[in-house]
Amino acid sequence: MSDSTNARAARVSGTVRIVGAGLLGSSIGHALRALDVDVVLADASPSQLRLAIDYGAGRAEREDDNPSLIVVAVPPDVTADVIQAELKAYPDAVVTDVASVKLEPFDQLRRRGVDLTRYIGSHPLAGRERGGAISARADLFVGRPWVVCRDEETRAADLSLVEALALDLGAMPLEMTPEEHDHSVALTSHVPQVVASLLAARLASADEDALRLAGQGVRDTTRIAASAPELWVQILSANAEPVVEVLDALAADLRDVSDALREPNAPGARRRVADAIKHGNEGVERLPGKHGQNRRFEQLVVMVDDTPGQLGRLFGELGELGVNVEDLRLEHSPGAQFGLADISVAPAALRGAIEGLEARGWRIAGNTND
Questions:
Q1: β-bridge partners, 70
Q2: Domain residue ranges in the chain
Q3: Which CATH number fits the domain 183-286, given the four candidates 3.40.50.720, 3.40.50.2000, 3.40.50.2300, 1.10.3660.10?
Q4: pTM of the full structure
Q5: What pLDDT is recorded for position 298?
Q6: What tens digit of pLDDT does each residue of 186-207 get?
Q7: Is 269 helix (H, G, I), strand (E, B) or coil?
């Protein structure tokens, strides 16, 4: 445990019970244990539970446990069942869940007549391509949005407890209705997963020569295609209506571009393609940047020899030049003995960074002004 972690006390008090010891559940456990919170773990899989406990995400449950907060972190198709069981088993506890779909489990529970006064749905917008307790990290939620879904029956103290959990984990709580949440993640998470998977599927039968040409663009747009199919079938099925809405609109846009390219010399065809790219520019510009700001940065691409210490030297010399690295991407070309460091800097720092690095012998492969 680091001194910086121990320097602050947890906002959450009492025992926290986590049902589901996979990536999210175990990561929550690690973060709370770092704040000396008593964490109880439960999981339908004995081996998964034992592994999470061995890694230090929490302890095994006892008969006298009386948790103040229960976090349900199980697959979407059993989320409602587990919430119902936990509400019944622990009548004094507030129950939340971290499922990526909020309306479906809420509606299921309402149809069953379950008293949802002590239930508050929530969803941390965080994750990794790899799952399970072995991939869990205490810092998984730091700086990430954490949606909290309240309704007219939600008690202020219960809401504060769930928001305190998010804050203890370093996340940023945001209040939304279940409907607002599901429509939002359909656009920003669920459809991107489908698009990335479909694009990556084109690579499965691609010629080896074509794959050798793969650059950072195709890697960026297919990164999340490595996600687990079993989980995503559940997520997409539970949020089908909003996802279909976005997919249908996207399919229409794709059809418009493909129709334009069938006859690129036809009147207006080039404009239709240009407008599609331009609208994409406008959408990207609306995405929050560093620290949630809409501030844009300039790009600087530096060639870095593939030898130990070179990247550290580059950062050090940028620091000497007074240039802050706002973001970084690394790209390696097959067979090449160097990489390309795509560095984001403040616009005012671009020219000084280029001149200063070139004076120190670095090779600049490109920049925003090229």
A1: 17, 95
A2: 8-176, 183-286, 292-367
A3: 1.10.3660.10
A4: 0.76
A5: 86
A6: 999 999 999 999 999 999 999 9
A7: helix
